[in-house]
Amino acid sequence: MKLVIAIVSNDDSHTVLSALTKANFSVTKLSSSGGFLRVGNTTFMIGTEAERLDELLDLFKEYCITRQLATVSMPSSYSDAMFSMLPVEVTVGGATVFVLDVEQFIKI
Length: 108
Ligand code: 2BA
Description:
By secondary structure, the protein is of the alpha+beta class. The protein has helices at 10-22, 53-63, 78-84; strands at residues 2-9, 26-33, 40-48, 66-72, 87-93, 95-101. It has a domain at 2-66 and 94-101: Alpha-Beta Plaits, CATH 3.30.70.
C-alpha cells in the first residue's frame, strides 16, 4: 500500500477532488499554505493499493494545470526587504506529489 501526499493549487482542488472520489479513492483534504508564496494551497492524503498508483497520478496530471504567476517574493528579514520585493515570475499549479510506502494500514 502507498500513501500519496499531494499539494495542489486551491484553483484545481475542487475538480481534482471530484475526480478522485468519483474514481473511488479515499481522500483526506487539508488546508495548507506554501512557504514561498505564503498563500493557501490544498494538501491531499490518499491511501491506495500500489497497483492503482499510476491511475491516481494520471488524475493529478489531468486536472492540475500549471500557470505562470507574477508576484513579489516575501522578505524573510528586514535586511532582505530591499532586494526581495522585486517582482518575480513563478510557475504555480501542477501538483507536488510525495509517494510513501505504508508499513501498516489499520482502521479501528
Ligand atoms: P510555495 O512554497 O508557496 O511555492 C510556490 C511556487 O513558487 C513553487 O511551485 C515554485 O514554482 C516557486 N518557488 C518555491 N520556492 C521557491 C524558491 N525558493 N525560489 C523560487 N521559486 C520558488 P511548486 O514547486 O509547484 O510548489 C507548490 C507548493 O508545493 C509549494 O508552495 C509548497 O507548498 C509545496 N512544496 C513544493 N515542494 C515542496 C517540498 N519539497 N516539500 C514540501 N512542500 C513542497
